[in-house]
Amino acid sequence: MALIGKIEKKKGTTATIYIKKVLPCGDNCRNCSAGCKHYSARIEKHVEENVKEGDYVEIIAEGEVTAKSSAMLYALSASLVVTSVVVVQLLPGINNKEGFSALAVIVSLITAQLFIKLNDKHKMQKNSEKFKVGKRIDKK
After folding, report:
1. Which helix (H) or strand (E) holds 10?
2. Which residues partner with 26 through β-bridges?
3. Structurally, how many domains does the chain consist of?
4. What is the DSSP code (8-state) at residue 93?
5. What is the domain extent for residue 18?
6. What's the pTM value of the predicted model, to 2 decimals?
7. CB–CB of 107/99 below 8 Å?
8. 93-104: per-residue pLDDT in tens?
9. Sequence-separated contacts (24+) of 127-130 with Cβ below 8 Å
10. CB of 85 within 8 A of CB of 101?
11. For 97-128, how does the pLDDT look when each residue is reduced to its tens digit (9 = 90+)?
């Protein structure tokens, strides 16, 4: 996972780093029309002396952090969609089951995305030791 961190505060060799995920379309949402939002987190790590506030640094994440979230993305979304359709179809006394099934799918996908974002943000903050600060990046 490509991550870029911005040094927000620095005291001695410890810095508060604001991390945002770089998506395939780039790190600027204006590059594409997908309308996606970046999730972000803040971690505290030791940095080199030549890094100062406002600098961008490369953040290297270990494989475990990214593999679990991508597997969860597909498994959770698929299971919520299937479960919502089955539950709606099994409910007695509903006249328009197709319409309610479509609504249940939409609600379950939105719920899955919100849960994934919250869980991913929590894992990034909890597992800050699994992130390594790489070299300084010159942003133009």
Report:
1. strand 3-11
2. 23
3. 1
4. T
5. 3-137
6. 0.52
7. no
8. 888 989 999 999
9. 127/65, 128/43, 128/44, 128/45, 130/61, 130/62, 130/64, 130/65
10. yes
11. 899 999 999 999 999 888 877 876 676 667 66
